[in-house]
């Protein structure tokens, strides 16, 4: 798959790139340095709220958060939309997660998350590959149809900021990382092709990796 990423994805054993970003659903800033030396972190790097798979990933992270916290791991999410748009969303869909706003995808680049080039082959794969990431649909659908169907199920109505985010970001992929208290990545799950679009790592896999930190 051709991509325009600037570096390879951060791999287990490598230092986790630090970041300092405005909070997406609160005040102040969120930094990875806040946790270094104190607690491991499960970090989910998502794209904008226009992405229905990312909105559902936030819900999955929120469901997993108390399970991770019980074994000493904190959870942080990064959402690629301006803080004001994020705050509007979370005003009506509150989340207890610590979420940061990164509309310019600086953390995606720092962590080497792939952004495929929309070649004819990639576009064909989007049309030909059927997905049903969390089982919410009656049957798998082509990626764009699956996204539209999940958006309809969720009752989500995009605004102009969402549309601008999508134009700038698509088809940026996502990733999740477990980072130990020393700031080193120990586990990673990175979307790498069309078939992985929308998928979130199984809870059992995340918890097993977290227990090994």
What can you tell me about this protein's structure?
The chain is α/β, with parallel strands linked by helices and 213 residues long. It has one domain (20-121, 158-211): Glutaredoxin (3-Layer(aba) Sandwich). Helices cover 35% and strands 17% of the residues. The protein is built from seven helices and nine strands; from the N terminus they run βββαβαβααββααββα. The protein has helices at 52-70, 83-92, 106-110, 120-128, 143-154, 160-169, 203-211; strands spanning 20-22, 29-31, 41-45, 74-79, 98-101, 130-131, 141-142, 175-179, 185-190. β8 and β9 (185-190) form a beta hairpin. 35% of the residues are buried. The mean pLDDT is 93.
Give a topology summary.
Elements (H helix, E strand, L loop, with lengths): L19 E3 L6 E3 L9 E5 L6 H19 L3 E6 L3 H10 L5 E4 L4 H5 L9 H9 L1 E2 L9 E2 H12 L5 H10 L5 E5 L5 E6 L12 H9 L2
Parallel strand pairs: 3-4, 4-5
Antiparallel strand pairs: 1-2, 3-8, 6-7, 8-9
Q: Overall mean pLDDT score?
A: 93
The gyration radius over C-alpha positions equals 16 Å
Strand order in the sheet with the most strands? 5-4-3-8-9
Number of structural units classed as domains: 1
CATH topology, by name, is: Glutaredoxin
The outline comes out as globular
CATH H-level homologous superfamily name: Glutaredoxin
**Topology order in helix (H) and strand (E) letters:** EEEHEHEHHEEHHEEH
Largest sheet: 5 strands, mixed
First-residue to last-residue Cα separation: 32 Å
Low-confidence segments, given as residue ranges, are none
What is the helix content?
25-40%
CATH architecture: 3-Layer(aba) Sandwich
Count of separate DSSP helical elements? 7
Number of strands: 9
Q: What structural class do the secondary elements suggest?
A: alpha/beta
User: Mind telling me the CATH class?
Assistant: Alpha Beta
Beta-strand content:
15-25%
């Amino acid at each position: 798959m051709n991509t325009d990423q600037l570096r390879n994805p951060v791999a287990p054993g490598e230092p986790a790139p630090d970041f300092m970003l405005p909070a997406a659903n609160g005040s102040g800033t969120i930094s990875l340095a806040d946790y270094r030396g104190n607690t491991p972190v499960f970090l989910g790097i998502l794209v904008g709220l226009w992405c229905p798979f990312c909105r559902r990933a936030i819900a999955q992270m929120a469901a997993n958060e108390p399970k991770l916290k019980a074994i000493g791991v904190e959870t942080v999410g990064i959402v690629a939309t301006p803080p004001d748009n994020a705050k509007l969303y979370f005003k009506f869909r509150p989340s207890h997660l610590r979420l940061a706003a990164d509309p310019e995808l600086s953390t995606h680049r720092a962590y080497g998350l792939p952004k495929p080039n929309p070649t004819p082959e990639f576009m064909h794969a989007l049309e030909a590959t059927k997905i049903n990431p969390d089982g919410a649909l009656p049957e798998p659908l082509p990626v764009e149809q699956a996204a539209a169907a999940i958006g309809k199920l969720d009752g989500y109505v995009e605004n102009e900021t969402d549309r601008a985010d999508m134009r700038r970001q698509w088809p940026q992929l996502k990733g999740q990382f477990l980072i130990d208290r020393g700031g080193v990545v120990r586990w990673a799950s990175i979307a790498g092709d069309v078939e992985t679009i929308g998928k979130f790592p199984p809870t059992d896999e995340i918890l097993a990796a977290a227990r090994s930190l």
